[in-house]
Structures are given as C-alpha cells and as structure tokens.
C-alpha cells in the first residue's frame, strides 16, 4: 500500500511547485497561482483571497495599499513593510531607467542649446495638447517616438493633464464671465454638418474679450424646428445668465426667425438679431444674379476654373503676375467678388461691390465690436455705390433696392439703430441723424426693451442724460473730445470713448456700453467650430440647404417683420 501513498505525495508536491512561480520577487512568498496557465490570477496564502492583476496587486494587498485591491486582514506589520518597500523600490528603479533613457536621447540631440527646462516645459505641454486628437493609445505612443528628449506618459494625458487643462480653461473663463456681467454679451448660433454628415448646432458667447465656445449638440435625429432651437438656446441663456445676455445672433433661416418669436414671449428683454455677414452675403448673391453682372461673373468663374485645373498654366500665371486669382473671403459670395477684383481691379462692374465687401469685413471683424458701425457703414456703402455708378439712377437703383430689401427686418432693428445713434463718430459728424424718425423711435423702443416698465430709468436716459450727449454739453463739447471721434480709424473705439467720457451720464453710459460692445455676426461661432474640426471643412446648414433658404425667402421676411411689429 506504500507505493500508492508515495505517488500521491509526489503529485501533491508537483502541483504545489507548478502553482509557485520561480521568482525572487518577495510577493510570491505570500501567494500561489490559481491556474498555472493564467499568470495574472493569484491567491493570497494568508487570507485566501483570489485576485487578478498579478504579483503587483498581491503586494499591494499585503502592504495594505488601498485603491485597487482590499487589504489583507491577516498580514503582519513586518510583512506589510516588506511588500511596501518592494513596491517603492520597483518604482524607483523604473524612474531611474526612464531618466537614463532620457539622458541618452538628450545626448544625441544636436539642437539642444541648454534651454531644456524652459523649452521642454512649454513644448511638452503643447505636444500633450495636440495628442488629445489622436484616436488611440498606439498613435499617441508613435507620436512620442519622433520627439527627441520628451517623455510622454499616457497617464499624464488621461488624468493629471486633463485636470490641469480644465483648471486652466476655468481660469481663462473668469475674465470673460466678469466681462459678460459688466458689459453684456451675445450668444451666437451656427448650424453645420461635420465630416460624418451629422447635423450639429453650436453655441458660442461673444463679448469684447472675444468668442468663447459654450455648447454643441447633435440634431441629426431631431427636426430642426422653432421649438427645438428655442429650447436649446434658452438653456444656454440660463447657463450664461439672463441678465448678462443682450442678444442672440443667428442666420436668416425661417426656423431661427420662428424661434425669435418664442424668445420674445418668454424673455422680452433679450434681442434676437440676424447675422450681418450672412445678410450681406445674401445681398451679394442677389446682385450677382442681375443680368448686368451675371455674364462677367460667369466668365470669371470659367477662367478661374481653367487656370486652377491646369497646374502649368497656373504656375505661369503666378510667375508673371506675382499674384493669385482666388482670394478667400468671409463667405462664398464674398470670395467670388474678391476673386473678380483680382481679375480686374479697375472694372466699373467690379468696383460697385467694394463698399459691400468693406462692410462685410467690419461685420465679421474681431478687432473691435461691430454693432456701433454696421448700420452707418451700410448707409455709407450705398452712397459709395451711387458714386461708383456715376450717380445715374438707372444704374444704381436695382442694386440699392436689393440692399434695402435685405436690410429691412434684419439689420435695421431697434438695437442696430440705437447703436448707430450712440456712436459719436456718426452722431457728431452728422447731427441730422437725430432727426430721423426711424432712428429716434428705434432708440425709444430699445430702451423700453432693456428697461421694461422702469419709467424712472427710461426718463433719466431719454430726457436727462441723452440731451447732454446730443447737444455736446459739458465734457462732450470739449474740442479734444470731439476730435477723438472725428475719424473712424483703427484707433477709434466707441466703447472706450464712452467708458472714459460718459461718466457724467452714468445711466446712458451703461446702456451705451452694453449695446456698442456687441457683435453683429455669428460667423465667429462658425470659425470656432472649424477649429474643433481641425481642417475647417465642415459645411454650414445654409451651405447644405442653400436652395431651401432661397425658396423660403418670402416666408423668412414675413416672419422677421412679424417679430419686429409685435
């Protein structure tokens, strides 16, 4: 009977040896493998707990390091210290190895000039930021392979770096939030389709400090109705603060105009205005369809297509002219007319568009807020167009009719008219604008919207403080003050003018600053989205459904007028 007993003991010893790893790691003193074929699954011989994660997790279990595994209840103090020291020694060795590798790479970096700490810190931050757009861990690691002297750790991107970026963003937003509260802001909307053809609506907040991305939402499976747009915008108004929002800026789509009506019913103190860049784009489009200009634009397009389709001809053209034909603009039709200008800068048919292109650049510009300039520059553009067409009514009337038709109900709101009147550049250079009925009534309506039912404030602005500004009394009449607003150059900013000189009319000053600090275009929101897309090739909703916008034009105008009349 002894031989069978001996065999059994031998088998037991064999199994035990199989479950033990031949390793000097102290962790194997306290565990066995659960399955010899699975080196990741171990069992603590002290308490019997089974766990995944291999020997490292077992040592954390014995050491009582919480976070990834429960502590062993039967390990002694000495055993805990042994495993804890083993873990710390392994970390130290790994760090030393990484430092050695880094020194080796720096040793062959021939462009290092000793500014390692300063340059690497900045570059390391920027590389990590750019790596967030990589789609996989492998791509990130490949990115790291080509950067000498920079150690990229995946955990830095997924946890510490992300937290730092969130904190940095919140810190940057503080100044913007203070600006919104003090001087007001605009919520800009833009609908677009990304590379995957998903319909997305983006919302940004604009103030004098710039444009900040606020929110983005996919609407691929939802009808883009008035109610849907309004509810989304209304949520963002709550987030920014209803008292901080002066206006919502959108393009001229019918559903946006319908949402404007819903906004007026709920939030009567917030304006809903049309995008100035889109409206001027529609002007250019309508003018291009007129018989006088259609032929020359079609011919120019044909020439341009031919040149850019034949690289040798294009190269010769660039070599001899030292110029390019295609000149990108704010919008598709702006680009078309800029291209025409490059073909023939002296042509009468092309000069007529220069004033509108100038206004378009103001509406879309980021150098200073455009609300105080848009209406006045449109008036000036019409005068410049008349001059370019020799002041002959038969030549300019069709164009002026298009411009006036697009302005009506879009760019002549009480907000635009009040900004025009309160910009000293226009008011002091042409005092007669205060006699225009539409402008005066527009200002009264604007004040009523911004201070509803507050007769005392309305009276103080209209009857006490505005006459001081209008008649150039006190400080407003000083030669230096008048000279400061005589020229509309890059240095002139009506908001700064009012902040400095409006101290004698504080209530009017606050109203004026909140109005003149506004934008007139939502194209900044479109640029913001293009930055997120990377290569800027997303299409706006009005590009995707351009025919629909054209066919619903009458409906759009009716809706705008309906909102304006209520």
Note the overall shape: elongated
* Overall domain count: 5
- The number of helical runs is 28
Distance between the termini: 108 Å
Structural class: alpha+beta
What is the annotated CATH architecture of the largest domain?
A: 2-Layer Sandwich
Annotated CATH topology of the largest domain = Nucleotidyltransferase, domain 5
Query: Given this structure, which CATH class of the largest domain is correct?
Result: Alpha Beta
Say how many strands there are.
9
Q: What would you report as the Rg, rounded to the nearest angstrom?
A: 34 Å
State the major sheet.
Answer: 6 strands, mixed
Q: Give the percentage of residues in beta strands.
A: 5-15%
- Uncertain runs with pLDDT below 50, 5 residues or more? 1-13, 108-119, 130-150, 528-566
Mean pLDDT: 78
Helix content: 55-70%
Keywords:
disordered C terminus, HATC_C_dom, 28 helices, RNaseH-like_sf, 5 domains, BED-type domain-containing protein, protein dimerization activity, single chain, 566 residues, disordered N terminus, Nucleotidyltransferase, domain 5, alpha+beta, six-stranded mixed sheet
Q: Summarize this, please?
A:
The chain is of the alpha+beta class. The chain is about 60% helix and about 10% strand. Strands 4, 5, 6, 7, 8 and 9 form a 6-stranded mixed β-sheet that branches. Strands 1-2-3 form a 3-stranded antiparallel β-sheet.
């Amino acid at each position: 009977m002894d031989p069978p007993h001996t065999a059994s003991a031998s088998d037991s010893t064999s199994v035990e040896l199989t479950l033990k790893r031949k390793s000097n790691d102290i962790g194997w003193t306290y565990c066995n493998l659960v399955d010899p074929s699975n080196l990741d699954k171990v069992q603590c011989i002290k308490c019997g707990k089974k766990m995944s994660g291999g020997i490292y997790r077992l040592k954390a279990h014995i050491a009582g390091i919480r976070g990834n595994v429960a502590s062993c209840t039967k390990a002694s103090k000495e055993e805990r210290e042994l495993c804890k020291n083993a873990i710390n020694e392994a970390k130290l060795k790994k760090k030393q190895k990484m430092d050695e590798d880094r020194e080796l790479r720096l040793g062959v970096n021939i462009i290092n000039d000793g500014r390692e700490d300063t340059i690497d810190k900045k570059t390391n931050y920027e590389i990590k930021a750019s790596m967030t757009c990589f789609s996989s861990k492998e791509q990130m690691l490949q990115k790291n392979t080509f950067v000498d002297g920079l150690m990229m750790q995946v955990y830095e991107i997924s946890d510490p770096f992300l937290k730092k970026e969130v904190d940095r963003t919140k810190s940057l937003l503080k100044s913007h939030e203070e600006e919104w509260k003090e001087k007001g802001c605009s919520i800009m909307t833009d609908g677009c389709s990304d590379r995957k053809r998903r319909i997305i609506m983006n919302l940004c907040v604009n103030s004098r400090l710039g444009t900040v991305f606020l929110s983005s939402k996919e609407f691929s499976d939802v009808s883009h109705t008035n109610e849907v747009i309004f509810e989304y915008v209304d949520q963002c108004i709550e987030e920014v603060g209803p008292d901080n929002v002066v206006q919502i800026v959108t393009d001229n789509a019918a559903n946006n105009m319908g949402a404007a009506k819903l906004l007026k019913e709920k939030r009567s103190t917030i304006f809903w205005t049309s995008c100035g860049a889109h409206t001027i784009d529609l002007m250019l489009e309508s003018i291009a369809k007129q018989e006088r200009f259609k032929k020359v634009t079609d011919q120019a397009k044909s020439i341009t297509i031919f040149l850019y389709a034949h690289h040798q001809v294009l190269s010769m053209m660039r070599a001899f002219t030292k110029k390019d034909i295609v000149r990108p603009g704010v919008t598709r039709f702006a680009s078309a007319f800029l291209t025409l200008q490059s073909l023939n800068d002296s042509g009468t048919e092309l000069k007529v568009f220069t004033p509108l292109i100038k206004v378009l650049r103001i509406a879309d510009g980021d150098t200073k807020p455009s609300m105080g300039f848009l209406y006045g520059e449109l008036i000036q553009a019409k005068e410049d167009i008349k001059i370019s067409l020799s002041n002959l009514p038969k030549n300019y009337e069709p164009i002026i009719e298009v411009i006036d038709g697009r302005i009506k109900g879009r760019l002549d709101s009480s907000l635009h008219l009040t900004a025009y009147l309160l910009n000293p550049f226009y008011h002091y250079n042409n005092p007669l604008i205060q006699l225009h009925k539409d402008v005066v009534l527009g200002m009264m309506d604007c004040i009523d919207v911004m201070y509803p039912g507050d007769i005392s404030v309305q009276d103080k602005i209209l009857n006490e403080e505005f006459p001081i500004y209008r008649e150039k009394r006190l400080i407003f009449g000083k030669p230096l003050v008048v000279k400061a607003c005589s020229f509309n150059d890059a240095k002139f900013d009506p908001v700064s003018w009012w902040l400095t000189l409006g101290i004698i009319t504080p209530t009017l000053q606050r109203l004026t600053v909140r109005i003149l600090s506004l934008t007139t275009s939502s194209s900044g929101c479109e640029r913001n989205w293009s930055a997120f897309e990377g290569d800027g090739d997303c299409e706006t909703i009005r590009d995707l459904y351009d025919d629909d916008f054209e066919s619903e034009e009458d409906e759009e105008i009716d809706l705008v007028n309906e909102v304006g009349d209520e």
